[in-house]
Amino acid sequence: MSEDLPEHVAENRRYWDGMAADWVDRGEKAWAQQPQWGEWQIPNAELPLLPDDMTGLRAIELGCGTGYLSAWMRRLGASVYAIDNSEGQLSTARRLAEVHGLPDIEWVHGDAEHVPQPDQCFDFAISEYGAAIWCEPNAWLSEAHRLLRHGGELVFLGNHPLAMVCSPMDGSLPVTDRLERSYFDLGRLDWRDAVDEPGGIEFNLPISAWLRLFDRIGFDVIDYREIQAPVAATGQRGAVTAEWAKRFPSEQVWRLMKRRLP
């Protein structure tokens, strides 16, 4: 592990490399299905994060994990560049790309806050969790802005700030019906000493802070969605129970556009 990496990048690399094997089965299932989003597997027809046709688009996935989202974009016609902080996760992605006959996705081991690609070389950028929660917001959003052409879109899905506010300070699971921490103090969430599932450093912000950050960097908001668990959902997904997520938003989706030149 490089000593030059920021603390959160190094910790998240250790964390995800250490549990990469636990995500193989979920990755294999996702590679074989149509696009479905988040912990509650909302179909793309109901939550349209990807266009129906991506022919001719150059797309980047920021924090690709096992690579299923990149596979979905490739099947829709995009040329795809996929970067992830975990070599263990990328090993699964590369293997599944061969299994599914998609050898031309470009898999890159690296930090989504520093992507080794030139300015304005992508039409579309996306993160489902990945950079959306594991990277420092100003850093990765500024990098996504640099990489996108003017008018290019960035879509990202991650934890809703309310779910973070209802997460106990000791890191125990699941989230509660109480306000456990300050909404206005959201930012860096260090789970290394968590009671349950210790490890990793996440980030989240109050919604007003997200909006100010987008504006300062140069993104306009096209859409914002707060995800509700389906009526038929049961059990627990990650840190959230289905009953909680039917009453409160556990996940959020932002769709942004890089401002066009005047």
TrEMBL record:
Pfam families: Methyltransf_11. Residues 61-156 form the Methyltransferase type domain. GO terms for molecular function: S-adenosylmethionine-dependent methyltransferase activity. This is Methyltransferase type 11 domain-containing protein. It comes from Micropruina glycogenica.
